[in-house]
Amino acid sequence: MAMLIRTILNEMIPQQMQNFISSKFFDLASRCLSSDFTFIIEERWQAVNNETFRAVEAYLPTRIGPSTDSLLIGSHEPLNPRSPPKQSIPVDCKIIDEFQGMHLEWTLRSIESKNYFPREKRYFRLSCKKSNRDRVMQSYFPHITRTAESILNKRDTLNIYTYDQESSMWESTVFKHPATFETLAMEPELKQSIMEDLDSFVTRKDFFEGVGRAWKRGYLLYGPPGTGKSSLVAAIANYLRYNIYDLQVQSARSDSDLRHILTSTTNRSILLIEDIDCSTKVAHDRTKIQDDQEDDNDQQPNRLSSTDPGVTLSGLLNFLDGLWSSCGDERIIIFTTNHKEKLDPALLRPGRMDVHVYMGYCSAAGFRKLAANYLGIKDHYSFATIENLLENVTVTPAEVAQQLMKSDEPEAVLQSFIQFLQMKRNEIQKQDGKQES
Ligand SMILES: Nc1ncnc2c1ncn2[C@@H]1O[C@H](COP(=O)(O)OP(=O)(O)OP(=O)(O)O)[C@@H](O)[C@H]1O
């Protein structure tokens, strides 16, 4: 009877269909009978970056052992024969971990995504015994998170990301900027207050939750060119050990594009938007922009600006303190501008950017710091003359730095700097005289 049925089925069901049914049947049987369980950890989770993925990515290189059969290695520093290159996990490499008597097998996988973004989809596969599933969730993953956190806090390299419109992805480079709060020339009280503000920000997760605010802090750095705004951003990144996402607002085509870009950034990072006054649609008064656009449209109805909405101020504000602000934790958002007066008042409203920092011309304290940095001296008989001149001459720290770099010989450098300041003072006096006459 069975043979008869088999023959009839063989006749009736095409071979391909038979193969499909039998493979599904074996899949189901092996899943029911297998004692293994698999966790999948994708790079993104519910449309934002998956922090579990990031934690595993930081943790797994610490578990490289004798059973590991391939490795990614490399270095971004000049090769040192005494230190080995850095290690990372390549795709398809198997990593074995043992934790509290459990045997855990990890593999990093990559598949090409059908979506335009991201083109490659990476995920980690973790296999363990079915009976260990709950222990993995309750003890192993928290252990990974704790370990990753301490690794990331101590990481020796930071990254700076720029957004590539072509590939719709953030591209990273190693960030090695020497600026620190120690090297910054600015008023000591201001410097101290910024450091205290950062310290209190990173330790007040519960406070932010308690008052119902997103765990974010906005800084607006403003002042003339060359006064150290970018250097301060670097000092903040080095101080907190945060990566920087350097966003050119123009690289987002629309507000929804911007949301996508911003939700692809990771926690514990700085989002930097430099020269915000140059991003016209974002920075300027919205009523003026509307008028301008209407004028533009009258003249050239087919211009890009009439069809391409670009990023709007409200789109950006939505991420700062609107509904989208809840996406991501522990973020510092920094805007820099040379022209605060050109910004839309909505951007400056209290509560939007929490801290406004004016980076001004070089003061006596700033000069002393730069002299210590560049010449290695704390005092000199010519300091009094220089400080006197600085009261009447506006000179940026960048200009001072340029002057102090001229030679290694402090005496010669300081004398030439005095001449430079006197020349500037004479120019100012000449201009004042012209205006009076
Ligand atoms: N306050 C400062 N302390 C120490 N160095 C400074 C300071 N300001 C400027 N410099 C020096 O001048 C260079 C240029 O400064 P920086 O790019 O930080 O200025 P900025 O205000 O960001 O200028 P811009 O507005 O043009 O971007 C720095 O590389 C640094 O060497």
From TrEMBL:
<keyword id="KW-0547">Nucleotide-binding</keyword>
<dbReference type="GO" id="GO:0006950">
    <property type="term" value="P:response to stress"/>
</dbReference>
<dbReference type="InterPro" id="IPR003960">
    <property type="entry name" value="ATPase_AAA_CS"/>
</dbReference>
<feature type="region of interest" description="Disordered">
    <location>
        <begin position="287"/>
        <end position="309"/>
    </location>
</feature>
<dbReference type="Pfam" id="PF25568">
    <property type="entry name" value="AAA_lid_At3g28540"/>
</dbReference>
<keyword id="KW-0378">Hydrolase</keyword>
<dbReference type="GO" id="GO:0016887">
    <property type="term" value="F:ATP hydrolysis activity"/>
</dbReference>
<dbReference type="Pfam" id="PF00004">
    <property type="entry name" value="AAA"/>
</dbReference>
<dbReference type="InterPro" id="IPR003959">
    <property type="entry name" value="ATPase_AAA_core"/>
</dbReference>
<feature type="domain" description="AAA+ ATPase">
    <location>
        <begin position="215"/>
        <end position="363"/>
    </location>
</feature>
<dbReference type="InterPro" id="IPR025753">
    <property type="entry name" value="AAA_N_dom"/>
</dbReference>
<comment type="similarity">
    <text>Belongs to the AAA ATPase family. BCS1 subfamily.</text>
</comment>
<keyword id="KW-0460">Magnesium</keyword>
<dbReference type="InterPro" id="IPR050747">
    <property type="entry name" value="Mitochondrial_chaperone_BCS1"/>
</dbReference>
<dbReference type="InterPro" id="IPR027417">
    <property type="entry name" value="P-loop_NTPase"/>
</dbReference>
<protein>
    <recommendedName>
        <fullName>AAA+ ATPase domain-containing protein</fullName>
    </recommendedName>
</protein>
<dbReference type="InterPro" id="IPR003593">
    <property type="entry name" value="AAA+_ATPase"/>
</dbReference>
<dbReference type="Pfam" id="PF14363">
    <property type="entry name" value="AAA_assoc"/>
</dbReference>
<keyword id="KW-0067">ATP-binding</keyword>
<dbReference type="GO" id="GO:0005524">
    <property type="term" value="F:ATP binding"/>
</dbReference>
<dbReference type="InterPro" id="IPR058017">
    <property type="entry name" value="At3g28540-like_C"/>
</dbReference>
